[in-house]
Amino acid sequence: MNYHVFNGDADGLCAVHQLLLGNPVRTELVTGLKRDIRLLERVEAQAGDRVTVLDISLNSNRAALVQLLKAGGAVEYFDHHYAGEIPVHPNLTTHIDTSAGVCTSLLVDRHLEGKYCFWAIAAAFGDNISESANRLALQNGLVQPQIEKLAHLGECLNYNSYGETLEDLHFHPLTLYEAMARYPDPFDFIAESAAFKELAAGFLEDTRMTASLRPLLQHAHHTAYLLPDAAWARRVSGVFANKLANDNPECAHAVITIDRAGGYKVSVRAPLANPQGADMLCMKFETGGGRKAAGGINNLPENVLDTFLARFTEQFG
After folding, report:
1. Strand order across the 28-30 sheet
2. Which of 1, 69, 209, 220 has the smallest number of CB atoms closer than 10 Å to its CB?
3. Could you tell me the pLDDT band of residue 57, with boundaries at 50, 70 and 90?
4. What residues form DSSP beta bridges with 278?
């Protein structure tokens, strides 16, 4: 039995798409919302099963990973988030690189020797590592209009992954992957897919809503926004955080959304000019994690918001 376990954002979607284009096997797909990062807990592999993990933190899935290995499963792990100590086991193969300019799809592209690199370029744009995306695009002979199409695709795929529940999303990530799976070439997906057209329309409508937002906290080197309790705000939170980072690369940003179960969800972007520290800040809180350039907190208690803002200021002020 094969399992492919992947984050539901642009990076996870494009990473699994590349791998399955390169090696089309029958597999059980396991994915979810952007913040559904403890996905290995959903896998009940047995001896002889193969589990491929893409774009979820090893550190957050350590216990489930160890259990899978004990059960005799073989695990191949592709990721760019903070991993902590990587277990040593004969059934574990890792492709982990936490450098700021790397995403999981770029690691898969490296593994596949560039065979489906256009999907990796879209993923890199979706993960807001535009310098790496542009470099790879130019190396592969793309011109500016093509690069802009892939950047928009990456943004739209990433946008679909943000929400408090699956009902907030335009598409379940698995449904979106199934729409992508028919297209080895992302330019054909952009031109022909009804799913992409619906996603792009939602992206445009929701991003327009951000024009009226005003910061909760604003200083020269760090800014925080508290978004309203609305589905559009939950959907657009990641895209909005990336836009803020791109528009002011010397500044760190935090985008805070209201968790309807209580407390807040937080997206953090380190300054693009110095993409360090987002993961370290978020890991100071119980449900936080991420990578150097971008991190998040899945549930920040309401009475801890002031503490977060103070530590955000300490980290980036």
Report:
1. 28-30, 2-6, 50-54, 74-79, 92-96
2. 220
3. very high
4. none
> What's the pLDDT score for residue 278?
95
CATH of the domain at 236: 3.10.310.30
In terms of residue numbers, what domain contains 181? Answer: 2-202
pTM of the prediction? 0.90
Does one domain contain both 31 and 165? yes
Q: What is the pLDDT of residue 261?
A: 84
184 and 244 together in one domain: no
Torsional sign, CA 214, 215, 219, 224: negative
Q: Side by side, which strands form the sheet with 294-300?
A: 217-218, 222-226, 252-258, 264-269, 294-300, 288-290
| Gap between the Cα atoms of 246 and 226, Å rounded | 19
Residue pair 264/257 in contact (Cβ under 8 Å)? The answer is: yes
How many domains is the chain partitioned into structurally? 2
pLDDT digits 0-9 by tens, 245-257: 999 999 999 999 9
Q: Are residues 82 and 42 part of one domain?
A: yes
Using the 8-state DSSP alphabet, how is residue 122 labeled?
Answer: H
My answer on whether 279 and 170 are in the same domain is no
